[in-house]
Amino acid sequence: MNLSLPWPRDSVLTFALEVGIVAVVLLVTGIQMRRRGRRAFATRLLAGTGIAGTICGVAVLAAFTIAPTLPTPFVPFEAQFVTNPVPDTPENIQAGRILYQQNCVVCHGAQGRGDGPAALTLNPRPVNLQLHVPQHPDGFLFYWIAEGVQGTQMPSWKDKLTETQRWQIVRYLHELAALTGGP
Description:
Elements: H1 9-35, H2 39-65, H3 77-80, H4 90-103, H5 105-108, H6 129-132, H7 138-147, H8 163-179
Helix pairs in contact: 1-2, 4-8, 7-8
């Protein structure tokens, strides 16, 4: 299973830094309270230090293991607001499913988790579509399918798939994310 956080690495590291600062403040305050004889309050502050330190450590670990390292790829302004002209029908979703299986499964996997047979050979790894599809408008998804994603192995499909076929894939991606527990 390909785990992925919905936040980029920089955001996770910033969160870890903020929690780390809170941990240091709690530690210093706890030590000062213990010196002043307020042991019960100091104990609570030091327990908070441990909790904040643990959260900080988990965030750093997540940042370097499962947080995506790529920012959202560029999409031209005019493409961002394009809506899907293909009707949301079972026939179009089925056509998108077939096209996805023929062209996308090798990298993104059958359930869109970025765990297809070729995924381990790619750097960066394919994104988990279950997480990313619900986060982006259709215009973004269509543009990335059509033009590819710079800095990744995601190719341009505009010369292989018709415009209608690309929109059918977008329809299917929403269905895939909904059926497989995407956000």
